[in-house]
Amino acid sequence: MNLIVKKYGGTSVATATKIKNIAKKIVDESRSSKIVVVLSAMGKTTDQLVSLANKCSKNPDGRDYDLLVSSGEQVSISLLSMAIKQLGKDSIAYTGWQAGIKTNNTHASARITQIDTSRIKKSLKEGKIVIIAGFQGINSGSITTLGRGGSDTSAVAIAAALKA
C-alpha cells in the first residue's frame, strides 16, 4: 500500500466545514493508501497569536513565544482527527514533538535535526490515519517553531524520513 504525506495550510483548514471536507477526502484516499497529514493552524490563528504575544511583551521570551504560537496547530490536528473518526476511520493526532520531530535550540526559526518515525510507523501499521502538527518540534525539552513556512518544511521532512 502506498504511503502519502499530505499538507494542508491555514486557509484550507480555516473553518469546521473545510476541515470536514478534508476529512472526507482523506478517508476516501485511505482506502488505497496509508495517509499522513501535516496541518497548519486554522486561518489567521498564528498571526493572532503573534499579535497577542506582542501586546503582552515588547520582546517575548523565545521559549514562551514558541509555546504560544505552536498551540494553533494543536487545534487543527485535534479537529481533523475528530472529523475523520466521525466518518468511521481511525486516526491519531500528534504534536510535532509527539511525532518525533527534533530540532536545534533556535526558537522561532528552529531547524529540524532528526525525526524519530517509530511512533508514526506504529500508528500506520495499526491502520490509523496519522495527523501531525506542522511548524513545530522539540529541542532538548522545549517546544520550538520552524518559522514562516514551517508546516511545509515539516511535511517535506516527514515525507523524506518515511520515504513516502
Main beta-sheet strand count, sense and barrel state: 4 strands, parallel
Low-confidence spans: pLDDT under 50, at least 5 residues?
none
Q: How far is the N terminus from the C terminus?
A: 11 Å
What is the name of the CATH architecture?
3-Layer(aba) Sandwich
Which superfamily, in CATH terms, is the homologous superfamily? Acetylglutamate kinase-like
Query: What Rg, in angstroms, do the CA atoms define?
Result: 15 Å
Quick tags:
164 residues, alpha/beta, Carbamate kinase, 4-stranded parallel β-sheet, two-stranded antiparallel sheet, globular
Brief summary:
The chain is an alpha/beta fold and 164 residues long. The protein has 6 helices and 8 strands.
Description:
With 164 residues, this protein is of the alpha/beta class. It has a single domain, classed as Carbamate kinase, CATH 3.40.1160.10. Helices cover 43% and strands 22% of the residues. The protein has helices at residues 16-29, 45-56, 62-69, 71-86, 118-125, 150-162, and strands spanning 2-8, 33-39, 91-94, 101-103, 112-115, 129-133, 136-138, 143-145. Helix 1 (16-29) crosses helix 4 (71-86). The longest helix is centred in the middle third of the chain and has 16 residues, at 71-86. The termini are close together. The model has no long low-confidence stretch (mean pLDDT 97).
